[in-house]
Amino acid sequence: MRGRTAALLLLALALVAAASLLLPFGPLKALFAADPDLAIAVLVELRLPRTLLALAYGATLGAAGAAVQALFANPLASPDLTGTTSGAALGAVVTAYYFGLSAPVALAFGSVAGALLALFLLLALAGPKAETATLLLAGLAISALAGALTTLALALAPSPFAFYDAYDWLMGSLIDRSLDQAAFAAVPAMLVILLLLRLAPALDRMALGEEVAESLGYNVRRLRLQIVCLTALGVGACVAICGAIGFIGLIAPIFARRLVRGHPGRAILPAALIGALLLTAADLAVRLAPLGRTLPIGVLTALLGVPFFLWLVAHMRWRVTS
Amino acid sequence: MMLRASGLSLPDRLFDAALEVKAGELVCLVGPNGSGKTSLLHAVAGIGGVSGAVSLDGADPRRLGPAARPRAFTYLPASRDLPWPLLARDLIALGGGEAVEGLELEALLDRRMDTLSTGERGRVLIARALAPRPKLLLLDEPTANLDPLWQIRLMALIRTEIANGERAAVLAIHDLDAAERYADRILVMDKGRIAAEGLDGPHIAAIFGIEKVNGRWQPAGR
Fold it and tell me: Domain segments of chain B: what residues?
């Protein structure tokens, strides 16, 4: 990534983050005039966690998506399409409604375990060098299974309000999270991104093929295990707090690789920045849209992500057939 | 002896093979499909797990880290397929070297690998293996997919690379004529073992099922 591109990305990110803190500006301004202390409290305790979560979750999805795509050597791999996100959601639902643990720590453990389970299931079903079709079919099966089990778990949950309770969270939401909760997702997320960045040189070598990467002194089996565990940890921690948000992990790495001449490992950093940018912008759009009620953000990313995904599939098919 | 490898084995593929290569030597491994040529190269390079003892100038090259590896040895796989379409220039750089002279890559360097023909991709991949100027070249089917002129040029280039007597090359190759013409030593592999040396003798008919009649290889026993 060239310095100018990086600076531009950072600038855009800063602008969107500032907008996410300050918009809508009207009520905030009025509140400042009436009660400055309350206005600051609104800013710090309502808007700041939301912005932080959008940045951290988006960056995690971008970085994890880039790493998973590099690992499977497939531009269509991503935490949501491979079932990792649904696995994490199932883990959190089971933890919350069956073990009755709703503390963020317990939820995070549950969803990280669910994500790990989904990723290992994917490796077992599709294999490490899966063709696109195999990878997507295995991911689809895992997503469907996790989704069905989540619905079943909610239907059979001891609390009759479980389903209604969980609805907003399952569709993905950044609203009404405390600063503690935000930190609970953001700290593991940042750690995971930093550790993924350290694996970038090894992931770049995966572009030469697995055999050559190994001959160059990179341990591919260990790399695979590291990526799986880090992705599960980062995505799991975010899902536990904000629910499942799709398509950012698919789209961000695809744009990012264009900035680094296709290097799959070097794409991790720009993918994290683009992921953070996309999710924060999507959250801003959800907040400012004049719909009366706030849309779950997962709905918006899916509405925007699916056409992109279809374009990508068509594009790949044309390239294969022509 | 520059390279000493012994006790190399891989499950079901390679059985207790041994290989010794002198500095300045070009060794060709020949043998029928599935006889263990690629497995032998893998075992020396430490691909797919480490077995047996390998010593390159007194040290085990499979214990070297990513920084030191490309100067010790490089490995060219038989496949010309790549999981990601990088620029040729970037691919060579990822291997730890810069472009090589003698492969006429200038026109290819700024093109993406998936826009090149199989033979052109082969030349770029060979450049990736040659560029770090390693002590030991492990090349699996380097002439595959190359046109006749490039096959000759490449074998001559490999000879030039090791001509200073400090480097060596081990090639797995199916082209017996090229092996005869360019190799210092030909090792014939069969069923996961090095069965014989050289292409003269009855073992060729036994292992390959071919024999040389009037200077041409033909199915044996006609």
Answer: 3-83+134-219
B10, B42, B62, B84: which to substitute to probe chain A, counting the most A Cβ within 10 Å?
A: B84
Q: What domain range is A91 assigned to?
A: 3-321
- CB distance B81–A216 less than 8 Å? no
pTM exceeds 0.95: no
> Which residue from B131, B133, B157 is spatially nearest to B143, judged by alpha carbons?
B157
Asked if B8 contacts B51 with a C-beta cutoff of 8 angstroms, the reply is yes
* Homologous superfamily, domain B3-83+134-219: P-loop containing nucleotide triphosphate hydrolases (3.40.50.300)
Query: How many structural domains are present in chain A?
Result: 1
| pLDDT tens over chain B, length 222 residues | 789 998 888 877 777 888 999 999 999 999 999 898 999 999 999 888 778 899 999 899 999 989 999 999 999 999 998 888 899 999 999 988 876 788 888 899 899 998 999 999 999 999 999 999 999 999 999 999 999 999 999 999 999 999 988 999 999 999 999 999 999 999 999 988 898 898 888 888 888 889 888 888 889 876
The answer to whether A318 contacts chain B (CB < 8 Å) is: no
Could you tell me if A133 lies within 8 Å of chain B, comparing CB atoms? Answer: no
How many cross-chain Cβ pairs, A to B, lie less than 8 Å apart? 69
Q: Which helix (H) or strand (E) holds B55?
A: strand B53-56
Measured between CB atoms, does A218 come within 8 Å of chain B?
yes
Question: What angle (nearest 5°) sits at the alpha carbon of residue A46, between those of residues A176 and A20?
Answer: 105
Containing B169, the helix (H) or strand (E) segment is strand B168-172
